[in-house]
Amino acid sequence: MTQLRPDDVFSKSFDWSLTKRVFGYLKPYRWIVTVTLIAALLIAALQPLFGLIQRAAIDRYLAPVGKVTLSNQQLYHGLLGLALLFVVLKGAEFIVRFAFSYSLEWIGQKLLYDIRSDIFGKLQRLHLAFFDRTPVGRLITRVTSDVDAINNFITNGLSSLVTSLFLIAAYATIMLSLNWRLALLSFTVLPVLYLSTTYFRNRLRDSYRETRLKQAVVNSQLNENITGMMTIQLFNREGRNQVKFDLVNRALMAAMLSTTKWFSLFLPTVQLLAQIATALVLWYAGEGILRGNGVTLGTLFAFIGWIGQLFQPIQDIANVFNNLQAAMASSERIFGVLDTEELVRDPEQPVPLESFRGQVDFEGVWFSYDPEVGPDTPERDPRWTLRGIDLHIQPGESVALVGATGAGKTSVISLLSRFYDVQRGAVKVDGTDVRSYRQRDLRKRIGVVLQDVFIFAGTIESNLRLGNAEIPLERLVQICKYVGAHDFIMQLEDGYQTEVHERGAMLSTGQKQLLAFARALVQNPDILLVLDEATSNVDTETELQIQDALAKVMHGRTSLVIAHRLSTIEHCDRIVVMRKGKVLEQGNHQDLLARGGYYAKLYHLQYESGALVGD
Known about the structure:
Layout lengths: L15 H9 L5 H33 L9 H54 L2 H6 L2 H43 L1 H8 L2 H38 L1 H6 L3 H54 L5 H42 L21 E8 L18 E8 L4 E5 L6 H8 L7 E6 L2 E2 L5 H6 L1 E4 L8 E2 H6 L7 H11 L2 H5 L8 E2 L8 H14 L5 E5 L7 H14 L4 E5 L11 E6 L2 E6 L1 H7 L2 H12 L6
Parallel strand pairs: 3-10, 3-11, 6-9, 9-10
Antiparallel strand pairs: 1-2, 1-4, 4-5, 7-8, 11-12
Helix pairs in contact: 2-3, 2-5, 2-10, 3-5, 5-6, 5-10, 6-9, 7-9, 7-10, 9-10, 14-16, 16-17, 18-19
């Protein structure tokens, strides 16, 4: 079963430091926040007035009928005036509520936009090691569901909290000022309400927490099953996986039913207490009316309405707790991403870079993908990927890296592009440590063609440009002809304007490789070209096209080539053979074969058995 990570669970019911950070996003919108608070205050001030109007209508005009002589005209005009005042105040309430709702939603959307932008920007700055150990689905949840939870708390929970507090204060004030005895009688059930609310809140908190945990398990199971669907169907695992999913799905259902149970008990409890308060007021005020002790029928009518309206915001405040729980958990996870240390950072004073001559030096490089491995880690530790690499490449030299799986070839490419930083030693280009350059400047001068080509949703042209609108279409066509991609592009329905699906599902592996090769050349990496197994997954005809382009492109450029097929790197100036993170031997193709060493064994193994040398 999928194991939960610490960020799947709650740490605190309320964290003031997280709340302050969330509210920090509201600082640019202080004026609209002020407008929202004023609108909430006006709503609270208007609500009790309707009860006063009803009280006046009863006590002045309806109750005196038959007791006090009032002309029909006086009765008509009096009630008409109160009715018009009621309508005017309702109209004012409509305008204020619109202002409140719109401004609050505006704030929520701005908050949502800013937080999502910050997370996306942070993700683009984080080093690749972070993505190696963090599932994509988890990061998508941070940008979507977790941000929505904060927005929901601001626009629903927090708004309900603010308006409820204002309403409670307004109702309590008007009730105490009108008849303090009736008001205090109405408040007698509040201690019971507080105790019951606290009890149900704790039960709801536990149930809600359990629901979130079970939901996380279901999401993880669902993600694993969808991403591994080919393996599931290949090994006929559908039935077993259905059983496993049913178990976690049933646990989620039970947790949600528990939450529903406590909600179902909580709401009637609040309503029951409100009715008890109403009964007490009816008993006391009714007796007062009969005895003539100053309590009027209009006052009784107003109090009955205010009691119901007083208990509703109290109930709303209790419900806010669930939104708060979700917001706290989501905030903790979001700020966990935003606070992630950026291990690969630009220097404060980067070395200016216009172009490379192409000299590359690996000087005593020790590297591990494990973030816990540091400069002081013993050399015998098995977590080291590269172990004391010394490699010197002259400008314009073409060098091939070969070796079995896990030899460290791709790590050399990654360090040169500074996707990771070394723990010991230095990687230098033109005599300067790559950590001294701005990452953008460094990678702009390095062309990389990967084995696993990523094609973005969009057109062929947009995939070649990668956002650089300054590149003319003529150059794109020229490069595509150069690498042999133009012909198959023109055979597509709309040529360079053909829409491709995400990850290039409509293209063959060879076509994607050719596009990737063209994409690297379009960016004009005229100093350094890095190729990572660009021809490992293409057919013989396509490989010949790429090899022809490679011979032209590599001329005069410093080039590092990794290939499964040793035939593709025979023409390189130098071949570096790697094994278990070390440079085992190096030389040209003929020299290495003549030595009869590890390279010769790999070469003969491949051509005698038809196998490919792995990475």
